[in-house]
């Protein structure tokens, strides 16, 4: 039986990257609701992200999205962040909001559109050098809405070509992670719809090209932990975009829709070495707080990941292996469930306190008055969202 | 064997209502692309809708959406439409874009929010009197994103109460149609998620409350034609919102994603009397032409419905019944497929010409120069979309 | 904050019915694996079921399946069961294994087949009188595999007619529960595919006709707890068939695939009065232990239901309501999650001991030697399965 | 515009392999219905398969399933088949029906079970030499039903190892095709659940290891034609198992559930060179005629493939490319749909007659009296099914 004390030191290396855009407004095609206190600038987003880290100790890096987080002086932005105790992680490109990309970006049959999209990534790489980011994340909205609209095969070849150019421009220490998504915004075919496609594409590029797994980007019923195990086995799991979903790409708080799934995913991460010291796997959130508070929403999210990681670490793996090898189905399942049903929250609260963090980070944040301050101070201006 | 000549007269009574908003811009949460020539006013939308009817003879009515189509003088708008050969059909309410509805409208636990939503419907009913509309269509975005966020049961009771008030305000000749939707924009629970809920709610209201079936609003794999048959049997099928989907509520052109499904749906409509003279079932489109041309997109849609209706009418029902009663599975299926695989397009082209319509409506429209004119004339202003 | 002591007395009224067939072999179309010790007779199934009750105190009744559990003398079978501390619950009919039902049973267009199926149900009612069963459960495999094979509408009318005859034959204290299922064994249309259909059919019958909700019989993504809330609201939730699934009708151990879903379902049961003293809702398992041990599989199942019921009862409903009414999304969700994440197992172990039950029922059963005995004694004969 | 005469010669090279087991009985876990005339021996299955080829000219090869089609003398079986005008194609292994495989076969943690499964494949290879078969098809039922039951990662490694041994035993002209399947009979994880896994596994083996795509083995909503295009691009599409489905692995007649999907699949096959002279792609059926006639069911199936191939060949690809490059969404889609809606049946009937085949193969078969003969002659004995 694994005890919390056995895993306490493993928890210290947990770091979950926050997406800057999670602090801006988001919504559906039907409506984007605003919220008092929403940031209006990259700096304000970073300030909010730093709050999450301050109270949880779990979120030392922030992911940027270009052009939403474009600034004139990235060095200054970096200092601003560092002063607040956070640094920059992944840079996310955007090839879905320029009118030029209506029918595709890196897969466009129009060479000038492809070049524009490639150039955007080269700009992102340049920004990465300035922000000290390791990962260039490409989520590609490219696809078609109607059968016949595009040539699926040609687009795949064009994608390979475009990615090659981008990959070649990466610095030695930089990586490219290619995200896949089942559907949306394209409704017939998506150019990178599944892990197999992402894997085939990055395998053709080289060692520093890896797959990004967004937990909300699969067909109904997909066994995501299997993909985790497989990509770790193939040495190609680069990063996670955590969130949860009941239906499609709902982008809810990670662990909210199916906590047991999150547990199984994290167990395979641990099992496959993805949580080991020095693991190449980056952990990140990618969520939309459409109606709930954003800062506490992000706190809830990193705490959910932490709690589930603790449970995954608590699995008695030697006993599990024994039951598995004995084909004792119920015993093996029971060992897993035992860890899942363990209430790690009290032990984590203590552990946090022992490290100078509040036992209840959300309560501490609420008591701090920060929320009231930003609601008061951030009057006027344009609240940040996906468009800006 | 049924011949086209046997069904030609049945085709004359086909009428498919167009949604005014299909002529405005639409998109996803990631981007709404604009298109040259997009209408900026209700009048321009109606003018475009009238073009669809002019060349196809299939779309004599236009559905309005309040507040998107609010005008000062509905009588004038009605004359404007009638001068262009179309009249007004359904009035669609909107309880998802006001900030007040962030956590619900007709189901809100806040009585003042419910009243606001009820008042909006009373205003719609008043507009219906002015526009000569029969149907008030309620699609409710209400729902929650997280388990526990709302009390599912209480909300259902509040919905019943709100609907009762609205229903009571209907004129003698007016109807209420309640649409259901599997999910989106709510991602955990939706207050009217399935036909059963819509049916239970409208059955409690009275004879003039009916179900609206949107073909894109079901769980994956749902047999929609079964629901059609069931609702017709229960006397509660009020109207259709036609569109098609590969994944979720994609809102693609009707028949584009699964033509055979459209055929099966229309066959059950015919079988169940929903296409009979005097049938209470209203046929309407509800689609989003995110990337394709809107006017020709609507033309393609009504033609798809017409072509499939023709195929559904061509089914040799006496032979089918005989094969069914003999449990000859392949023969019965073959009789259905025979109609589906019949290429009705040449006969329909001839039939159109015999009625003074162009054989190829889309080509005729394209040759008319209308598109070039609106692209040129509709410079400036704000293109209509879901927000306005 | 609700304490375990507050809910302890509520737990005493929990009773979960066991299906006799869960103790026989089951499998997929690919293979049914046998297991040493599998019962060969209804008596042996009942003896195994009694073991589950003996160690958990949760399963005082057993459901029978006719003809699988046909015996010459039901009074003797009843005494046999009572001697082992259990009584009989639901009687399940079977209209899917006789060659006559290849193309339908209660919906067959052949009047003699319908009569045969009706007569089978009349026989079941007769058996119910002898076994003291209250509920006649009808799960109908009827449906078609190919479009056109059957007339969906006519079949629905025939179903209504057949059910009426059966309903009329019920005793005053007997009930009819109609189960729905999304698909399988029919692969195109199923005659009772969703709760709406089951509801419409039983509503037409009368007060003693109710819906049976099998948790594995829904389309992917369906919000089952919503259906629970709705059926309770409509007064038509008759019974549950508990199991769990990752994909289709997998019939796994309840709570195994998505424990949080089970929690949400049970919370709505509690919320809607379905767990109240005297509630008409019957709780039953319907699972297939294809590869795991059957007796301990059933134990695991009833314990899962008990643990989740405890968590559902622990929800601080006044606090929840307050957060809901304040539209505090994260707080409301947090209150629900707090109960879900509470580890009720130690308190339940104590509670069991306080009632003379073993703290760990599965360990106690394993230590009892029963399994070894039946493996040794049940050599020879034909192991019970779905066919016998 | 492509004319039928332009594609007529392309149609002559179409060959669709029939699975011997399609002529035996099949069903669901609920019931396998027998049918008069069902074969009792491999010879009788082959005789029935030969009928399909005789009347359609489309099915010159038969796939065998070991052990279901085990005989003492394969040379004799081969002569028997050749006398009837057919030869042997793929040999399908079976690692799901032996009690030893309850918890896995090629992935079992028990080395002796793995060896047994490997030996079975070596035996299949030996049979292939005798039957003149090129392809060894491996569909692996391996997987688990409960989280924790097995170690996903280890099983994947064991699979790679087992496959390597089998691959090494292949003759120079032989190939291994690895089929993937979303789920069933395993209900939690499947060891080869998706094309990515099959691709990663066969890529590690060598050039003569390829992916087998069964059209019914995907998650809901999966864009199958995309996978076709991708695998052709990667040079790894080995074969098809054709069938259709509304829900899961329904194994209905190919084209029956979604004819447009079959069209899109075949269009990508043509587009990607999979139908070219000398293409390595093998086309095969894998279906279950649970309730419909088997011989005419197979006829209907190969005719469906032929009709859809004709439509796919009719697509005006130069015009399509032009519309695609112009981003004319509706025009491009329209060109595809134009081919789909073309009724190729009359031209195919003529074409068949011109080649000495009956215009209506099914009618010709029915008129032949073969069915009546086998019904009369095949009295007694045990009808073939999946178990024998």
Automatic annotation (TrEMBL), chains A, B, C, D:
Gene3D superfamilies hit by this protein: Divalent-metal-dependent TIM barrel enzymes (3.20.20.150)
Alphabetic keyword roster: Isomerase, Manganese, Metal-binding
Superkingdom of source: Bacteria
Swiss-Prot/TrEMBL GO biological process terms: L-lyxose metabolic process; rhamnose catabolic process
Protein's recorded name: L-rhamnose isomerase
Record flagged with keyword Metal-binding: yes
Presence of the UniProt keyword Isomerase in the record: yes
One term of GO molecular function: L-rhamnose isomerase activity
InterPro entries in the cross-refs: L-rhamnose_isomerase, Rhamnose_iso-rel, Xyl_isomerase-like_sf
